[in-house]
Amino acid sequence: MAKHKTPLLDQLESGPWPSFVSDIKQEAEARSKNEKGLDYQIPVDCPEDLLGVLELSFTDGETHWKHGGIVGVFGYGGGVIGRYCDQPEMFPGVAHFHTVRVAQPAGKFYTTKFLRDLCDLWDLRGSGLTNMHGSTGDIVLLGTQTPQLEEIFFELTHNLNNDLGGSGSNLRTPAACMGMSRCEYACYDSQELCYNLTMEYQDELHRPAFPYKFKFKFDACPNGCVAAMARSDMAFVGTWKGDIRIDQEAVAAYVGGEFAPNAGAHAGRDWGKFDIEKEVVGLCPSQCISYADGKLAINNKECVRCMHCINTMPRALRIGEETGTSILCGAKAPILDGPQMGSLLVPFVEVNKDDDYQAVKDIVEGVWDWWMEEGKNRERLGETMKRLGFAALAEAAGVPVDVRMVQEPRHNPYIFWKAEEVEGGWDRDINEYRERHLR
Amino acid sequence: MAFISSGYNPEKPMENRITDIGPQHFTEFLQPVIKKNFGKWLYHEIIEPGVLLHVAESGDEVYTVRAGTARLMSVTMIREICEVADKFCDGYLRFTTRNNVEFMVETKEEALNLKKYLNEQKFEQGSYKLPVGGTGAGVSNIVHTQGWVHCHTPATDASGTVKATMDAVFDHFTDMKLPAPVRIAMACCLNMCGAVHCSDIAILGVHRKPPMIDHQYLDNLCEIPLAVASCPTGAIRPSKVEIEGTQYKTVAIKEERCMFCGNCYTMCPSLPLSDSQGDGVAIMVGGKISNRITKPAFSKVVVPFLPNNTPRWPEMTEVIEKILTAYSEGANKYERLGDWANRIGWERFFEVCDLEFSEHLIDDFRDPAYYTWRQTTQFKW
């Protein structure tokens, strides 16, 4: 018998899509049966109380969670988000219900051993409810109480060999696409770079010292599966120089209908016979592809590496062999000054593991030094860039100015010339001037 | 309940403490076939909805079966996922950025068996546990936020709106009949933990009433200068009020300047703004992240407000279905939703989607607004 009546939530158990309500109920039942005989360290009925408080929100249209309090583990300034219910007497099981962010492995590959160990930990010391995963990429453990935090951290680090993620004004848990693990488009090892920078900057991740949050995301190609360009202060998007590799026999197989175009992604509808002129040549944004006499030709100098031809004929075309990453800065969601997309700071940098990615780290640290010096409280990098100008960022990062940084040149002539840029400098004598120009 | 110690000694917090170890290295979690062919993949193909084939230079093949999840999942559910991975994949699996789970096997037969098996797993109440799909030119899983489940600032629920939407567009998750992928995202307030500002279709929780002021408590709970500084439109100023003979330091709000972002409430709990009538969802469309063909683009608001009609938000799912239908019928192959709207013109978009255009949809927020107004005589009747 359910602790709370949930007639509204119950209506979210029908329909095909996995029902989170059915799942929470399943967890409530498992905890109440307690077949393993666990001595649950937080209220056994917290999933039921979570359904109860959620039903109340579905009824009155308002949230019932208070602001997070300051909770955490010793020596860290992030990783735990305090959460308290504003109706603790009605729902004592979730009166204190803190979130724990756990650092996820790059690319989110797992063994069942690791996940089961995590489940055992969270069964005993938390609500048994999670998000796989949070938007930033962490494993999110939803709901525990303050006395459990150090215990969870101790077991996580000692038994699972894993750390907490980031929260607050620090480096948030970096996230990468699956990259070279299982993708032929990977221009660099996004997982290794993600892991390396995560480890290099553990202090920045756990101990808030920034003006506001800072996100790294790693997309190994311009398709952007982790949305780095849209949502990370510093986005690493793989790219290449040189020629797209062409297998003309495979091109012919696409034209002949032996291979499904776009890797079969359009198989659900009859779009007619594959038309290479219309679907590849005609859609190339820089019009650098031609198809004649059964041969595909690409004018690589004019290619902007949008991935369309490669995505459409993955068996025939492969990315170029000189690979690296572009770096774009300043993306963020609209709060506060409107949405921003990442702006191209570095067109191309080698991703070189042999020197421990020093070229990348030099840029990262240049940007951070500048932002920590100039950024206002709660100002994202993108906002500092808007306030102080892109050129200031480029200078701080030690990146030479490049026409590729802009979509087009400036619309106004209000150039902030510096004295040293102007012949003779700015020191002039008014009296001398007046000798030539009477008052 | 007896407290069970992990071994942590509160008297000596630094004793035996391990910190700053990060996540484990990802290679600890890679399936042998993935590890062996790391960086040496040749091409891939979607052999049917939800099933991908990757072929390596070595000739090795790996078949991936992708299944949707609710994202909010219990340890019971995770253990079931582990059972699947143990049974079919030697104990390996991965999650995607869009909250899908992927199981990898080495033959087509195993993959098709696995797909069948996953589609047979259902909750007692009827919904799929792990529906296979989310590939190619269809709708993949919705990235989303916490909503009323676990957050203090939401203007709507996340899990509920996602469940209602995915039920409504489920056919597009299990099939690939759209012109291009449609990425749907959901954020329950303007903070956008889910970063929905570059999605083909975005569901966004919005407030419409200015904050109330808890005068008698504000100065104890908040730093007044921070609350004042938090307002992007400068609508908040320091103030004093007298209540029953007592003077309180507090703030005053110019309500007509409020843009309902909730940033003040983030900084000061004494300025709550949630309200059952004021809160609801906006619908945004036409954003993208990929650099394919066209540049990444922001989503645009096309419906300024729909009510929180729980538990299934019928007005919201109706709008999403209308947009998807018009897009499906009108767009060219490979054309993303925003590219289609740009091509036909937004005046035509509102017509074919049967949506009302109102003054709320004309941008008036700072400089970027100007770039969204029409500076040409080219338009369609």
Helix content of chain B: 25-40%
Arithmetic mean pLDDT of chain B:
97
Low-pLDDT ranges of chain A: none
Net shape of chain B: globular
* Order of adjacent strands in the largest pleated sheet of chain B: 1-2-3-6-5
Mean of residue pLDDT of chain A? 97
Shape of chain A: globular
**Beta-strand residue percentage of chain A:** 5-15%
Sheet-strand content of chain B, in percent, reads: 15-25%
Largest interface (CB < 8 Å): A-B, 148 and 146 residues
The first-to-last residue Cα distance of chain B is: 71 Å
Radius of gyration of chain B: 25 Å
Strand order of the largest sheet of chain A: 6-7-8-13-14
Oligomer state of the chains in this structure: heterodimer
Helices and strands of chain B, in N-to-C order? HEEEEHEEHHHEEHHEEHEEHHH
User: Radius of gyration of chain A from the CA trace?
Assistant: 27 Å
What is the H/E order of chain A?
HHHEEEHEEHEHHEHEEHHEEHEEEHHHH
**Helical segment count of chain A:** 15
Helix-strand category of chain A: alpha+beta
Describe, in plain words, how this protein is organized in 3D.
The complex is a heterodimer of chains A (439) and B (381). With 439 residues, chain A is an alpha+beta fold. Chain A is built from 15 helices and 14 strands. Helices cover 32% and strands 14% of the residues of chain A. In chain A, a hairpin with a 2-residue loop joins β10 (289-292) and β11. The longest helix of chain A is centred in the last third of the chain and has 17 residues, at 358-374. Chain B is an alpha+beta fold and 381 residues long. In chain B, the strands form 3 sheets. A 5-stranded antiparallel sheet of chain B has the order 1-2-3-6-5, covered by helices on one side. Chain B has helices at 32-36, 75-89, 108-120, 159-168, 170-174, 215-221, 224-230, 263-267, 314-330, 337-344, 346-352; strands at residues 41-48, 51-56, 61-68, 72-74, 92-95, 100-105, 184-187, 201-206, 236-243, 246-253, 280-285, 300-307. In chain B, a hairpin with a 2-residue loop joins β9 (236-243) and β10. The radius of gyration of chain B is 25 Å and the shape is globular. Helix content of chain B is 26%, strand content 20%. Classes of the chains: A alpha+beta (439), B alpha+beta (381). β3 of chain A pairs antiparallel with β5 (92-95) of chain B.
